[in-house]
Amino acid sequence: MELREKVVVVTGGGNGIGAALCRRFAAEQAAKVVVSDIDMANAEAVAKEIGGLAIQCDVADESSIQALVKQTVDECGRIDVFCSNAGITVKGGIESPNEDWMQMWDVNVMSRLYAARAVVPMMLEQGSGYLVHTASAAGVLTEIGSASYSVTKHADVALAEWLSVCYGRQGINVSCVCPLGVTTDFLDNDDPIHRYLHLHAITADDVAESVVNGMREKQFLILPHPEVAEFFSLKTDDHDRWIRGMQRLRQKLTREMKKRDAA
């Protein structure tokens, strides 16, 4: 898809990858870029910079996404591309409280479902549309540190696959963006696991460039880090061997964390 003269909505557009996507879509001469964020000040700042439209939205609330879609259609006439980009992360494994798990589920997964419910019927009527999910390499590999992040990002990829299978022959394209480390607030320098991700980290602008190129080719999996494709191939070739390798990596990083805490 070429983005020129398209109406594009980006959730979580006020910072990080979302803001980079908004700037890149504007550079592609989109008809209008809707910068949506729960933080209206951030959304307005990005929208002012690119000549876009700022709309506040809490993606964990289905009615808020419905309102976002309605306002966009009222002001722009249609939606050609909907980027479900907003996401969160929390630390912890199985000991994480249920409230954290449910918040992760609502923001990282249900928000994608709410968006699809709101825009797919319209796109089917238009005969065209594009859904973009910002997932993570954790969705095709795993995330050693946060169990809820890994699980919800896997679910995000699975939903994107389902949408592509069901609507891909009806004019709706779907892409799932799965970066590894990106230099945003998500990376915690005090976490040895995230320090490992810094070794492969790219910028949010790099991710946005990959997204635009991937959309042109209508790629389902957009992998801004080429090495993710290699890791994914190793996983599918010999899943048990891959798990053993990840166990060793986790053990190494856990030891580093204990040494740091003891110092």
From TrEMBL:
Organism: Fuerstiella marisgermanici
Record CDD domains: SDR_c
Keyword annotations of the record: Oxidoreductase
EC numbers, comma separated: 1.1.1.340
Lineage: Bacteria, Pseudomonadati, Planctomycetota, Planctomycetia, Planctomycetales
MF annotations from Gene Ontology: oxidoreductase activity, acting on the CH-OH group of donors, NAD or NADP as acceptor
The protein's name in its UniProt record: 1-deoxy-11-beta-hydroxypentalenate dehydrogenase
InterPro entries per record: NAD(P)-bd_dom_sf (IPR036291), Sc_DH/Rdtase_CS (IPR020904), SDR_fam (IPR002347)
Family: Belongs to the short-chain dehydrogenases/reductases (SDR) family.
Keyword DNA repair attributed: no
Pfam families: adh_short
Highest taxon of the lineage: Bacteria
